[in-house]
């Protein structure tokens, strides 16, 4: 049996569970109180683990926040990539893909709460390049659309930044404005992409 196929030992299982317990405790606190109002002591208390156990896994709440954000980014990227599979670059299809994308957030109240409480720290991570892979995914999708003749000749990098920024702000607005007209925002975004083609 290959090493990778061996069952996980009890000690390793405990390590995985402890780490997950800390992350879940932090996610709950960051969602309820926000990053700034949460301290390491709160996370330790919420996790029901000892301070020594906590520091075996993480050194600060900043480290935990970045891990949680990376998990969110990874999950959202996977869903974006799935929603764009085999999508033709026409307005109807783009609208459907954008609907699926925003549903990731609308369908997850806990995620929306996390985003709502921690917008300034997420923006800081954006400035540190934490969302760059998502931006590259979008740039690649636009490049493919231009190459296939489904999109007009665009300054792809600039348009990708503009669309990404618009999406970021739409999500931020969705968080603080529950009745925000997401459908209208999606229609406007796709219209901006196709304004030169008349499609």
Characterise this structure.
By secondary structure, the chain is mainly α. 73% of the residues lie in helices and 0% in strands. It has helices at 10-32, 40-47, 51-57, 61-83, 91-106, 109-117, 119-127, 132-147, 156-176, 182-194. Helix 1 packs across helix 4 (61-83), helix 4 (61-83) runs antiparallel to helix 5 and helix 5 (91-106) packs antiparallel against helix 10. It starts with 9 loop residues before the first helix and ends in a 5-residue tail after the last helix. The mean pLDDT is 84.
The structure class reads mainly alpha
Which overall shape is indicated by the principal axes computed on the Cα atoms?
A: elongated
Q: Please tell me the overall pLDDT.
A: 84
How far apart the termini lie comes to 56 Å
Please give a quick description of this structure:
By secondary structure, this protein is mainly α. It is 73% helix and 0% strand.
SSE topology:
Elements: H1 10-32, H2 40-47, H3 51-57, H4 61-83, H5 91-106, H6 109-117, H7 119-127, H8 132-147, H9 156-176, H10 182-194
Helix pairs in contact: 1-2, 1-4, 1-6, 4-5, 5-10, 6-9, 8-9, 9-10
């Amino acid at each position: 049996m290959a090493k990778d196929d061996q069952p996980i030992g009890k000690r390793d299982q405990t390590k995985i569970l402890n780490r997950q317990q800390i992350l879940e405790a932090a996610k709950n606190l960051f969602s309820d109180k926000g990053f700034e109002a949460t301290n390491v002591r709160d996370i330790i208390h919420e996790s029901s683990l000892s301070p020594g156990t906590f520091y075996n896994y993480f050194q600060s709440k900043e480290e935990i926040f970045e891990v949680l954000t990376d998990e969110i980014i990874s999950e959202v990227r996977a869903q974006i990539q799935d929603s764009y599979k085999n999508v033709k670059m026409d307005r109807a299809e783009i609208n459907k893909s954008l609907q699926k994308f925003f549903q990731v957030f609308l369908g997850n109240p806990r995620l929306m709460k996390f985003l709502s409480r921690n917008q300034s720290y997420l923006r800081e991570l954006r400035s540190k390049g934490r969302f760059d892979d998502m931006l590259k995914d979008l740039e690649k999708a636009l490049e493919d659309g231009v190459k296939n003749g489904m999109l007009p000749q665009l300054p792809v990098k600039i348009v990708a930044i503009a669309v990404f920024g618009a999406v970021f702000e739409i999500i931020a607005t969705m968080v603080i404005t529950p009745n925000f007209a997401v459908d209208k925002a999606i229609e406007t975004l796709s219209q901006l992409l196709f304004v030169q083609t008349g499609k």
